[in-house]
Write a structure and sequence with these properties.
about 80 residues; mainly alpha
Length: about 80
């Protein structure tokens, strides 16, 4: 969610979004490590291709999640919730 989408949500929807999108750093770190392992295996086996790009995209999504959560927290603070 970007800032414009967050500003359109009601107070109840914001609180529900915060409850559902709380980051879990240990789980995220495990999945990032697993995906990096897949990339390293792919590079060492000389199999560059589409299957190497999928883990890179998933890592990007996992790294982007805390930034979205911070934007959500800022919006909640702005509304004094």
């Amino acid at each position: 969610m970007n800032k414009e989408e967050l500003s359109k949500l009601s107070d109840e929807e914001l609180l529900e979004a915060k409850k559902n999108s709380k980051p879990k750093p240990i789980v995220d770190a495990f999945f990032i490590g697993f995906l990096v392992g897949i990339i390293i295996y792919s590079v060492t086996a000389n199999t560059w291709g589409f299957l190497t790009l999928i883990p890179l995209f998933l890592i990007y999504l996992l790294l982007k999640k805390p930034k979205q959560y911070e934007a959500l927290k800022k919006e909640l603070k702005k509304r004094n919730l």
